Structure formats: C-alpha cells, structure tokens
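TA notes, week 10

Several of you asked for a full example with nothing omitted. So below is the full record: structure tokens for the whole chain, then the designed sequence directly under it. When grading your own attempts, check the secondary structure regions first.
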C-alpha cells in the first residue's frame, strides 16, 4: 500500500486550520487550565537555495506551540531560555515539492514588549526525493534534523508576525545525498 503524503499533508493542514479557528474563537471563554495551544501560527515560506537544490513554489505553513515547561511564567531572558515551548507543525509542498511534518523545542527571548527572537531545534519527516529520482533536492533519508531562527514583532499581547529561516538535513548521519532544504518566510501568530 502506497501512502499519498501530499494528500495526507493537505488534509492535516485543513484539519489544523479548522482547529485553530475554533481555538481562537473560544479563547475568550476558556480558562487557562482548559487551554490546549499556547500559540498558533499561519504563514508561508519559499526556498532560498539555488541550483538543482532549489524547490519551486510557495509552502503554506501552520505551527502550534505548547507550553508544558512554564515559558509564560518565566521572567527575563535567562529564565525564558530554561523554559522552552514545544512546537508541532507542517509545511505543505503544493507544487509537488516536499511537504514536511516537524516537531521540537522552541526558545523565545523577549527584547522588549514588542520585539522577540526565536530558535528552534527538532526533527522532521518529509515527502521529498531521497536519491535523485526527480527534480529538486535529494535528501538521503526520510527523517531529518530541523532547526530555525526567527525575529518577530508583537502588535498586541495576542497578535504577532515573525520572519524565519528554517533548514532541514540529516547532517551526514544516513547514507545517500544530503542537499537539505532551506526555506525562509513569514508567519502570523496568535498567542492565547
């Protein structure tokens, strides 16, 4: 049985979008103990690689952040670094390029009430080409490392925008090519 990852990814994106809209609409009535997400982000990215490793098209993205370690109660950047959030997200290759499902830890540091920076590290499973059977980057294995850096601006305590650059590769820990994928984009976030 062959799994159509593109179809699965699009369905997950739709389900996550509906869940996000539902979550935002009930935020005002939810108590902190009932809250599932700490923050939801929607956006898009594009490949910043060149040559045969470049991916075509735009990649819609959705990311959910959770706060199991008490980030919201952390005071100052030192405490913020000791209390990472957990992220879970997807980036959809709507032009036939690789879709990604990623998870890991996110460290957010506030410079002021409006400016912040972020770094994330974890893993990704993708639908891309492993060994040169098609166009675009070759990844060598299905599971990769995933890291990102971002800088953001908060319009209100709830709404923000963040520019980020993300990279995924296997760091030469599995056989085969390791072109990796590097994408940059913007995300709009809603913090509950």
């Amino acid at each position: 049985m062959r799994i159509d990852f593109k179809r699965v990814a699009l369905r997950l994106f739709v389900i996550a979008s509906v869940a996000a809209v539902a979550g935002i609409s009930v935020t005002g009535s939810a108590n902190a103990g009932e809250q599932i997400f700490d923050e939801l982000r929607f956006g898009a990215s594009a490949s910043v690689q060149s040559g045969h490793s470049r991916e075509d098209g735009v990649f819609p993205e959705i990311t959910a952040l959770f706060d199991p370690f008490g980030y919201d109660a952390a005071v100052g950047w030192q405490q913020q670094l000791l209390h990472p959030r957990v992220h879970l997200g997807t980036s959809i290759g709507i032009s036939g390029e690789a879709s990604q499902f990623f998870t890991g830890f996110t460290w957010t540091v506030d410079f002021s009430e409006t400016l912040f920076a972020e770094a994330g590290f974890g893993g990704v499973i993708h639908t891309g080409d492993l060994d040169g059977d098609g166009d675009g980057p070759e990844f060598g294995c299905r599971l990769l490392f995933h890291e990102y850096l971002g800088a953001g601006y908060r319009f209100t305590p709830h709404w923000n925008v963040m520019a980020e650059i993300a990279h995924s590769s296997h760091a030469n820990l599995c056989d085969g090519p390791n072109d990796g994928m590097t994408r940059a984009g913007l995300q709009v976030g809603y913090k509950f």
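The chain has one domain: 5-26+36-191. Use that as a sanity check on your answer.
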